[in-house]
Amino acid sequence: MSSIRVNPYPMPDLLAALEQLQRQQTNATLELATGSSINKPSDDPAGAAQIIKINDLSSQVDSFQRSINSISSQFSTADSTLNSVVTVLQRAISLGVEGANGTLSDADRAAAAAEVTGIQSQLLSLANTSYQGQYIFAGTATTQPFIVDPTQPSGVRYVGNTGTNDVTIGTGYQLQVNVPGSQIFTGTGSDMFLAINDLITSLNSNAGIGAAVTELGTAYSYVTGQRVFYGNALNQTQSQQTYLNTETLSLSQQLNAVGGANIADVASQLVNDQTAQTATLEAIGKASQSSLFDYLK
Amino acid sequence: MSSLFGALSIATGALGAEQGAMDATTNNVANANTPGYSRLRPVLIESNPVVENSVTYGEGVTLQKLESVRDPILQLRIQDETQQQGQLNAFVSAMQQAQVQFTSSSSDIGSQISNFFSSLSQLSTDPTNLSLRQGVLTAAGNLATVFNNTSDSLTQQQTNTDLSVSQDVQQVNTLTGQIATLNTQISQLQGVGQDASAFVDQRDVLIGQLSGLIDVSTIQSDNGLTLTTSNGSPLVVGGQSFALSTQTNASGLQDVYSQGVDITAKLTSGQLGGSIEVRDQKIPALVSSLDTLAAGLANALNTANKTGFDLNGNPGGNLFVPPPVSGKGAAANLAVQITDPALIAASSDGSAGSNGNVAVLSAVQNQAVAGGQTPTDYYSSIVFSVGNDVSNGSAELTSSQLVLNQLQDQRGSISGVNLNEEAANMVQYQRAYDAAANVVTTINDMLFTVINMSTLTT
Fold it and tell me: What ipTM was estimated for this complex?
């Protein structure tokens, strides 16, 4: 026989083709359902590895954002506390200025001294402000930072420490989150509590009120200066927040570029596969149903 | 001089030959769907002529034999490809199960590493907060658990693969026994010059099944068929089969022995080859990578925790139970050492509110803790290697399947039964038979004429 014989058994080939089509459809359906072209590492090994890294970076950005939210609240609390401190210091200064005016009676000065004493305890309470159980001006100590101590010239003693904490709010970006109370309130030559104590003493004794007011003015300027730290920190966290938002967006775009399913492509591929499957099934149904035997008489 | 009786004998010979040819067709049609069947072809030859004086008289037709149409070289190629396919099939299906452990999810190792460092990051904003500290411990516990589970699942899968090795060996032994029996039958038939094609077909089917299980080399010699593994261990020599056996090795897995020799590592094809590669190489490599990662991570975090101070102002201790120095079993046994959240060493100076050491702990995220890579990078390279194995194996499997289909097509086109062809042959043989029968009738008539000649002359 000279002609090449044809394999009379087309079934295995047809079934293999059918199986391949069904596998493709299962994959396409899964891609459409998950919206992802990588549903197991073997779908795209390099892509799957990249997705793990991108997910890790996303998780880091999320942590930075959570950290920013958390320290921003601390910053706001500290900033508004210092705002109150500045306000009551202004009141104390104006009381001192009034007291320095020689026309005031002893009783008036005593009343002023009493009000400044009230301010003193107000300041003490403000300096001991806590946020979620943590004293914000205690350095890294956890005890109440300022306590009344009559043996001290200022009547107040700082028992916190000088530690500061940094919080990471970006890759390699660490932000200092606190200033110790000793630095803000009791700096040498600008000790707020000493100035207030001196003002009370001078009002009561009607001697050196002017000097006490000057001393308080210095402390006031100093605290105002320290407050800038928190303002700056708030600004920094806000701009970092903006940066992290774009970072999140960029990471999700990367994730989509690596592992996102191309819905249009997948859907049209699915339709093609379904058509091919129908055709294959018809071919199988009709294959070799008849032979020459059917036509022999 | 020719005789009428000579002609009669030629015609009856033709009847016999056509009937024999029809037998071949009948058998072909009957076995049209029998796996491994090779179609029969009648071999008709002219009978030797008789020469008388100047005339040569044909002596009709002889049915020499019914021969099977087969291509032994093609059969060998099919066996080779079947071995390849068996190996890839076992490899891919086992690795697909392994890859499930590394499929991206919210609770895979990669996510739990991220979660752990994320919990540290939160702790840095409020280092005295006990619920944040507990969060770190919980995340550390989850990390340990996912390492334990992943490693355990891989070990479990190794055990399952081991079971299929034992089963495959049993199946190999059954098949080699059957092939040896067929060998005996074939050589007995061939010894007396008879056709053994039916047994050869059966043997080809069994060798095909055997090829799916193990690497088989076929040697055809005068004393029959010899099957060995590719490294030369005998499986079947003529009528004798050599059973393989299994023995439990030091790791509790079954090694394959032939004639007292361990041939486990030498089996590279067939299902056995694929299963053994996964069981003895791929899974141990994965488990060992996980061990490296778990040990590297645990050691680095322990070191970091020891540089700081806990909430009580005491120097930090181990966060995780120190992994074994060899690293072996580190992933399966990773466990958190401390249960008191206060013992996390967040402080760098001993003051309770300090978070300085959290940065040291967090820095482990970007340290080369395993294979010169950061934890996440190392993990992603494990995922890549698993995915790559499955992906390459699947691609090879698909192409092997294609090659095998083509070879089977080729075999079908040579040895397969085509019903149209058989129908045409049947018509042809039937017509020839009819013609020969008519010749017999005619000669009979002629003989009648001759026999009655005497009465005519009387």
Answer: 0.87
